[in-house]
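Retro notes
What went well: the complex prediction finally ran end to end.
Inputs used:
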Amino acid sequence: MTTRGIAFVSHETIPPSPPPGLSLGPVAWIRANLFSSISNSVMTIVGLAVVFHVLSAVIPWLFLGSIWNAGSLTECRSIDTGACLAVINERKWQFFFGFYPAEERWRPFAAFILMFAAIFPVLFSGASRKLLVFSVIYPGLAYWLIWGGSIWGPVMVFAGPGVGFAVWRYGGRAAGSVMDVNVAGMLAMVAGALVTIIWWLFLVEPLDDLVTGIVDIGLEPVQSARIGGFLLSLIIGVSGIAASFPIGVCLALARRSNLLIIRALSVGFIEFIRGVPLITLLFVASVLLQYFLPPSTEFDLILRVVIMVTAFASAYMAEVIRGGLAALPKGQYEAADALGLDYWKSMRLIILPQALKISIPGIVNTFIGLFKDTTLVSVIGLLDPVGIINPIRADQNWNGIVWELYGFIALFFFIFCFSMSRYSQYLERKLQTGHR
Amino acid sequence: MTSISEAPEQQFRIGMLIYDTRYRSYTIQIIALMAFMLAAAWLINNAIVNLAVLGKTFSFGFLSQPASYDINQRLIDYTSRDTHARAALVGILNTLLVAVLGCLTATVIGTIAGVLRLSKNWLIARIMTVYVEAFRNVPVLIWILIVVAVINESLPVPRDYCRTPEQLDCLNPVLGSFVFTNRGFYMPIPVFQDAALAVGIAFVLSVAAIVWFRRYARAKQEATGQILPVFRISLAIFFLPSILVYFVAGMPIGLEYPKLQGFNFQGGIYARDSLIGLWLALSIYTGAFVAENVRAGIQAVSKGQTEAAFALGIRPNRTMNLVILPQALRVIIPPLISQYLNLTKNSSLAIAVGYMDVTGTLGGITLNQTGKEMECILLLMAFYLAASLSISAVMNWYNERVKLRER
């Protein structure tokens, strides 16, 4: 028997050999992702053919042979065969502002810029709370900028809730000294609401006239019929979105309330609105709404449309938020009750922040849907981008032009809606606080 | 010594209506109801006053008056001498036609796109992503206008159809019997002779036989474990007897082909450009949404389910049919049905391209001719509400049926 030591020990590590040529790098990637099997290869080839076909039609048309400066379609065609983008160049102001007076275009533009200042404190929680004051007064400011007229009209409208609040606060205190505090509080609240309504109905106009007579601060008034283009889409979309959110929250809470009548009213409203197409509601706005208002009330068409669009969006918003409320574990509701919070406190502090977070994707989808649906107002004759097309195509110079116009509008909506959906995905990730 | 004393009798004070939770809910509800009724009364009163001022009455009598306008796409007989009610019915049928067709194609397109979006093939997955994002983020009205424009601009006028040499399809015996022009599509219409009844009976009988055979196969599988080739046999029962009877009875079903007469085609089934455009646009648009639902549904079934089925020795096909699909469908179907609902409501955009659906007849021409805005819009809303509520009822029934029974 012989003892044998270890025959061989390597003194240095063997250098790693490079991976086989076909398992790394672009070739391997192409093999794995495009040609992994026969059916996959066929699909890849078909896909490449489709992409090539589309690009070879679009790129020369849009980039190589496009014409930006021409006076008419025939002139375009005589220059080159590509896209006649001259029409967009010539009509760009109509696309953006409709028939808004040229020298006043800075006003809607300023309103648009200020909109970002107004939504900044809403979207980003890091911003100062004081900025929210600007968000509150922004609607009045934007209205004044776009429609013009005396500044005192919007100021007086905004003063209404202020006066009502003062009545509630100080009237309640004064009455509390002579009677039961609780009863006084209740009476003061009713009085405050009544004062606000009376102020709006009867006092806004005379006060507006009065103060305008003393200090006239105003802009050139612009009629609604002249407002159009993307400006109109944004007016309807943004005001619908802003107004439908709080209404939607209220409707969702009402639908989940255990008060029978409140719930029934909410369900009836939501199901009715969701059951009919938006276009019928727009018909209501254009031909029916004035029947339901006091005789000889003159109501602006854009305002009527905004009201109906808001009602439409609130119903959808309510359903989305209701989904969020239902998805919240029951323990959250019970914990809020156990802490002794009353209904509104528990909703405001515990339930809604979580429920709204869950429903963010749905809320943003509703916003996107609403924004896309603003194109429907062209059916009742408003001059939104789709409505602007008809006068352009009726123009002798541009008769027969199609793709450039539709493509331009489609691109505009795509940019807006796509960035909104990306923002919602970002928000969803940012607000993801675990539980996984 | 202590004694339990009765709780002091509380006197009812008016403040308790708002501060005592026992009474507060009643207060709130009564106030809400009163406010609602007041608002409703105010609106109705305004409407009555306004109608009186304009000298209008609220009645549905106009429905029985002659409509005196033409509808160029219809499923039932209609002339301009027929009543407004019949015009509305034609419109309703047109709405249902485009809605049903659209739902079918949207499902097919959406399923294919949704599955392909999950494909391992990078290029195909990207193309499908582009499709879904492009269609979801652009308004449906614009897509409808674009598709109708494609039909109107790129297809030949009927007079020139099959005159140009590049249209080789015209010589094809199958494709050639279809006519695609910018005024619409024409396709052959089946013409039934008397003996066609026999074919119909044979067809109905074979469908009944398929149902019976499926039950038999299932019972047999449950009793003995033996699996019959159900699909192939069903297919055979579906086609063979009817075809046999068709030839035995002397080919009683013929086809009437569209023929060019003057400037237009006559005969066959005629679908206007607006119908085709609306149908295609709605299908492709809704298909993008369906694709997202399908993708979410498939991703919702965890991979463990597939692996467990394989571990049990179930074959891939059966795994798909018996394990994956039933679970994915539970996630897919509810949003799918609400997409159907959206499609039905979006079909009201027909008015933008001149397709005479119920919005175009009842809410369009009838409304403008008679001036009965309130009645027309009420009827229009009632129709759409009825349609939506019945679709939701189906959805609720389905949800109830497939709900997970948890203990």
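What we learned: Chain B touches chain A through 56 residues (CB under 8 Å).
What to try next: split runs per interface for comparison.
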